[in-house]
């Protein structure tokens, strides 16, 4: 149903309403005429409104048609542009393909010509090779004839002459090789080791190191010798209780105002020293009191170990270390290695590693961390079956340390493969800290044996008259026979001895090998 029909229906209904009212009243005809006139007027107005509405709808429809046609034309124009662009690209591709085909054809022609040229050259080479082979056969025949003639003239066979020539050339080659090796070593020292020496020297200079050496005894000072009687007790019961509780030996002798505490474990010695100090201050010295004080001291020493570890990592600026590792660092304070305090050694190595890593442009924090932890395997409370380096690596892995730190700990004695640049730095700094003068002590017998073996190794070479190991075995001075050893051979002898020392002996630092050859002319005036 359209809008016009609806309006007409409404008008008709209104007219009918008016007409119905008029008929119902039946009062007069004027009312009826008035109603009809109003109905006609309403109908006329409705038709006029419907006509206006129709015009508005038609105008709106035209506007929509024009808008849609404009959008269609724009879309058509855009698609036409895309088609033109695609057509242009297709033409360019066809042009490029044509050019490539032309280039391929030219390349095929050049390749064909090159093949022909190569075949021609191969033919020429084959002919020349045949000519060379022919001349070689003729030369060999002539050489054999000349060799036979030379053998008859010199009364030597070809093998004997060849051996003499080889010996002469070998001697000359050895002399030249020695000179070349010496020159190469000198050049390498001037170039390759210059920066390395600079880094090591600056690192050592910037690191303060103490030369204190710990022993297996501690000295407890007392104010008067009267206290010795209290410490010994009746029939020695107090000193026996002390020794049983601490596990060390108390030596009370005629030494004035001193008691010696002897034991291989530094932790036990420290517990004994602190316990004895508290007992002397308190004055009550008897077995029950001794056990009570020793137990308290053991608890306090554990706290002190943790405090030492925490202070060490704070001083070095190391963060995020596991509490168990901190405790192990504190235990290093009461452990020594070859007479060198382990904590002091580890602190020194950490500082050396940080300095050297910074100079080389590596991670100084990881290097310092690895330097501090490189000997934690030595303070493990259980008896280790593994070497301390591998045990330390396992402990570091257990407590989630960085892989580079773990590898540096395990590889600093070459017991596993090095996988990072920090590992050789830890190894070098450990050697620097352990081999510097005054850092460690060796047994006198092993020290003498090492020097004796060093001299015996040098005297085993031919031409060596005397050999002296000086400067604690860091320099080897060798006197050779000037009649049997020339200057070139002296240089080669120094090189050979240094190489044999590197292969067969173990030593800290480096050994300087000096070969001295001198000519002496002696005459007597009568």
N- to C-terminal distance: 163 Å
β-strand amount? 5-15%
Largest sheet: 3 strands, antiparallel
Helix vs. strand class? mainly alpha
Helix content: 55-70%
Mean pLDDT: 78
- How much is the radius of gyration in Å? 54 Å
User: Spatial order of the strands in the main sheet?
Assistant: 1-3-2
Tally of helical segments: 15
Which stretches are poorly predicted, pLDDT < 50 over at least 5 residues? Answer: 208-214
- What does the overall shape look like? flat
**Secondary-structure element order, N to C:** HHHEHHEEHHHEEHHHHHHEEHE
Number of strands: 8
Give me the secondary-structure topology.
Layout (H helix, E strand, L loop, with lengths): L2 H23 L3 H126 L3 H48 L11 E5 L4 H7 L4 H10 L2 E3 L6 E5 L3 H17 L4 H30 L6 H9 L4 E2 L2 E2 H18 L4 H10 L14 H11 L4 H9 L10 H14 L8 H16 L4 E7 L4 E6 L6 H18 L7 E5 L10
Parallel strand pairs: 7-8
Antiparallel strand pairs: 1-3, 2-3, 4-5, 6-7
Organism: Aquirufa echingensis
Family: Belongs to the RNase Y family.
EC number: 3.1.-.-
Please explain how this structure is put together:
This is Ribonuclease Y. Keywords: Cell membrane, Endonuclease, Hydrolase, Membrane, Nuclease, RNA-binding. The protein is mostly helical. Helix content is 70%, strand content 7%. The strands form three sheets. Strands 1-3-2 form a three-stranded antiparallel β-sheet, covered by helices on one side. Strand 2 (249-251) and strand 3 form a beta hairpin. Helix 3 packs across helix 9 (342-359) and helix 9 (342-359) runs antiparallel to helix 10 (364-373). The protein is flat, with a radius of gyration of 54 Å. 21% of the residues are buried. Mean pLDDT is 78; it is low at 208-214.
């Amino acid at each position: 149903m359209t809008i016009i029909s609806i309006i007409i229906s409404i008008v008709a209904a209104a007219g009918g309403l008016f007409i119905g009212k008029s008929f119902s009243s039946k009062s007069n005809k004027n009312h009826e005429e008035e109603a009809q006139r109003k109905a006609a007027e309403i109908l006329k107005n409705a038709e006029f409104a419907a006509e206006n509405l129709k015009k508005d709808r038609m105008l709106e429809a035209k506007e929509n048609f024009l808008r849609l046609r404009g959008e269609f034309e724009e879309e058509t124009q855009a698609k036409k542009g895309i088609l033109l662009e695609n057509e242009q690209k297709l033409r360019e591709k066809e042009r490029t393909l044509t050019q490539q085909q032309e280039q391929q054809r030219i390349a095929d022609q050049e390749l064909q010509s090159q093949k022909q040229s190569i075949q021609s050259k191969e033919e020429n080479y084959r002919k020349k090779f045949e000519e060379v082979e022919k001349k070689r056969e003729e030369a060999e025949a002539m050489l054999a004839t000349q060799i036979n003639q030379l053998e008859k003239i010199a009364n030597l066979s070809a093998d004997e002459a060849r051996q003499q020539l080889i010996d002469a050339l070998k001697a000359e080659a050895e002399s030249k090789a020695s000179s070349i090796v010496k020159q190469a070593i000198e050049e390498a020292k001037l170039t390759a080791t210059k920066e390395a020496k600079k880094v090591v020297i600056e690192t050592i200079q910037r690191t303060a190191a103490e030369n204190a050496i710990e022993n297996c005894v501690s000295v407890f000072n007392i104010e008067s010798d009267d206290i010795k009687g209290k410490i010994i007790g009746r029939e020695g019961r107090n000193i026996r209780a002390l020794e049983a509780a601490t596990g060390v030996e108390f030596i009370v002798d005629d030494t004035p105002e001193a008691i010696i505490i002897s034991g291989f474990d530094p932790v036990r010695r420290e517990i004994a020293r602190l316990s004895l100090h508290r007992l002397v201050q308190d004055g009550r010295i008897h077995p029950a009191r001794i056990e009570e004080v020793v137990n308290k001291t053991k608890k306090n020493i554990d706290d002190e170990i943790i405090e030492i570890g925490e202070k060490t990592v704070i001083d070095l600026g190391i963060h995020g270390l596991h509490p168990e590792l901190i405790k192990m660092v504190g235990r290093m304070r009461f452990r020594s290695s070859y007479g060198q305090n382990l904590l002091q050694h580890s602190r020194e190595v950490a500082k050396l590693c940080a300095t050297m890593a910074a100079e080389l442009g590596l991670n100084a924090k990881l290097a310092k961390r690895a330097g501090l932890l490189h000997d934690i395997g030595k303070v493990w409370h259980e008896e280790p079956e593994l070497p301390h380096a591998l045990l330390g690596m396992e402990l570091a892995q257990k407590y989630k340390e960085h892989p580079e730190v773990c590898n540096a700990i395990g590889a600093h004695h070459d017991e596993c493969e090095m996988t990072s640049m920090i590992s050789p730095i830890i190894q070098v700094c450990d050697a620097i800290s352990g081999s510097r003068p005054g850092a460690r002590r060796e047994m006198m017998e092993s020290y003498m044996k090492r020097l004796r073996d060093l001299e015996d190794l040098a005297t085993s070479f031919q031409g060596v008259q005397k050999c002296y190991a000086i400067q604690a075995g860091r320099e080897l001075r060798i006197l050779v026979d000037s009649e049997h050893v020339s200057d070139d051979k002296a240089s080669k002898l120094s090189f050979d001895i240094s190489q044999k020392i590197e292969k067969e002996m173990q030593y800290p630092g480096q050994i300087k090998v000096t070969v001295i050859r001198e000519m002496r002319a002696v005459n007597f005036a009568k």
